[in-house]
Design brief:
The chain is of the alpha+beta class. Helices cover 58% and strands 10% of the residues.
């Protein structure tokens, strides 16, 4: 129900009415009537029948007898007035969205960048929400114009992926996934595109920057700051990954996961992850072995053979199978496409975990510090919250109270331009966090830009990293009874 609060208030009124009817000598029939109304109201609300609920409330408030308290009648009238106002606002917005959709849809056929189509999908999504969600809007989705927008989005998303236009494909698949979130028909597509983009971001970060920058320019937005490679090399991020880490992670997840997922599914999904890696064209830059068509096809053929072998229900899957597969995959890679073991294992592990739920992942060595920061309620750093501003610069949202950053004078809206003398222009937030944080009691030098009386001035800070505790509740400590 969309109005749970008003329903609770009305049932409370009815309960009071039942008691009052008896206490003040009204007919017993009035009390039992109020009790029956209360039960009927709750049952209808629980069943989600909003039309029937409105009918009951209207009939209740229109009764002209003493069994309906004045307060109850007023509450129902207020409810009906709010519903009428809401429906009026909704009808106005529906008309506006339909008009906007007709305009953008007219431009879709001649538009090549996908932005008008993406805008059309956003408007379709809003219409669906205005009609109560996907399940309630089945007739809406069947309307010719809306059905054509959805079909065109699906067609262009798949064409964009086939052409290696990963961001466009991801954007359209994401819209479709949100629109059909109930039946999850696009879940596999959005996962696949997300993995491709994550791989490009990890292994070919400069190319990822180019993809994002070009997409922004196509959309008429400002360019990103120039790419900055400091701390953004995949070799550093994959340190500590070996086959035993991956084998043990899959063994534990496959046998202890709450759903009892079979290791077989995980191994097949792991091969799928490697296949996605090998077929992502941008990765030929960091992995030159992928440029050889013959080597790549030979490797993919071996992957398919391994997948078919694992899919055979007669194939017994055990620890030896997993260990042999990992060994075979690294050997096949060395003989064909020459992907470094750490990278191959990283994508095999991520792919395997994707066979489980959305929250089961391997926390890789490079991610442990970030994971602990998010789960332990403390981290080693200087104590600032940061975000990108509209120009994609690293901006201080706020220095945390009582932290080293606050004590040295860092202020909200300061722009961090350098860390230890190196420019961080073009940094992602993760890059910025990685270079600002570090071992406890070590120093980090930050250069900030700050607006002072209408002028931009540069301010330098030397800050000692400390353990920062993140408190979920702030206030006075209770020391005992008073």
């Amino acid at each position: 129900m969309q109005q749970p609060t008003i329903v609770r208030r009305l049932v409370a009124f009815l309960a009071v009415a039942s008691v009052s009817a008896t206490a003040w000598g009204f007919q017993v029939e009035a009390a039992s009537t109020a009790s029956a109304w209360s039960e009927q109201l709750w049952t209808t609300a629980r069943d989600g029948d909003s039309d029937r609920l409105s009918e009951i409330l209207h009939n209740l408030s229109s009764r002209d007898d003493v069994s309906v308290p004045v307060g109850l009648r007023g509450a129902v009238e207020q409810y009906e007035a709010n519903v009428a106002k809401r429906e009026g606002t909704r009808a106005t917005r529906v008309a506006e969205v339909r008009s906007e959709l007709a305009e953008t849809f007219a431009e879709v056929a001649s538009e090549t960048g996908g932005f008008k189509l993406s805008e059309s999908m956003v408007l379709v999504m809003e219409l669906v929400e205005l009609h109560g969600g996907t399940l309630a809007a089945a007739d809406l989705l069947a309307e010719p114009m809306i059905a054509k927008v959805i079909t065109e989005a699906d067609t262009q998303a798949r064409a964009a992926e086939a052409a290696g236009q990963w961001l466009k494909a991801s954007e359209l698949f994401y819209r479709l996934h949100v629109l059909f979130d109930v039946d999850q028909r696009y879940k596999t597509d959005i996962r696949r595109l997300s993995r491709r983009l994550a791989m490009i971001r990890l292994y070919a970060p400069e190319h990822y920057w180019e993809l994002r920058n070009n997409r922004r320019i196509e959309a008429g937005e400002s360019e990103l700051p120039p790419y900055n490679a400091i701390g953004d090399h995949y070799q550093e991020k994959l340190k500590g990954i070996d086959k035993w880490l991956v084998i043990q992670s899959i063994e534990v997840a496959g046998t202890r996961h709450v759903d009892g997922q079979a290791v077989r599914k995980m191994l097949i999904a792991g091969i799928d992850g490697i296949e996605t890696m090998v077929t992502t064209t941008e990765l030929a830059q960091p992995f030159p072995g992928l440029e050889s068509g013959m080597a790549k096809q030979a490797f993919l053929a071996n992957l398919e053979a391994k997948r078919e072998e694992l899919a055979n229900p007669k194939k017994n899957i055990n620890q030896r199978t997993l260990r042999q597969l990992v060994s075979d995959l690294t050997k096949l890679s060395a003989q064909t496409v020459s992907i470094p073991d750490e990278a191959l294992l990283h994508e095999f592990g991520n792919g395997a975990m994707s066979a489980l739920d959305d929250y089961s992942v391997i926390i890789w060595p490079d991610e442990v510090r970030r994971f602990e920061r998010n789960t332990r309620g403390s981290f080693i750093g200087i104590g600032v919250q940061i975000q990108h501003d509209e120009l994609m610069r690293i901006k201080v949202v706020t220095p945390l109270e009582g932290t080293p950053a606050q004590r040295v004078g860092v202020q909200s809206d300061d722009i961090i331009t350098k860390v230890n003398g190196d420019s961080i222009a073009g940094f992602t937030l993760d890059q910025a966090v990685d270079v600002i944080t570090g071992p406890e009691n070590t120093k980090v030098e930050l250069t900030m830009e700050r607006e002072v009386e209408g002028e931009t001035v540069e301010v330098d800070f030397t800050i000692v990293r400390k353990s920062i505790k993140l408190r979920s509740v702030k206030g006075w400590k209770r020391v005992g009874a008073s």
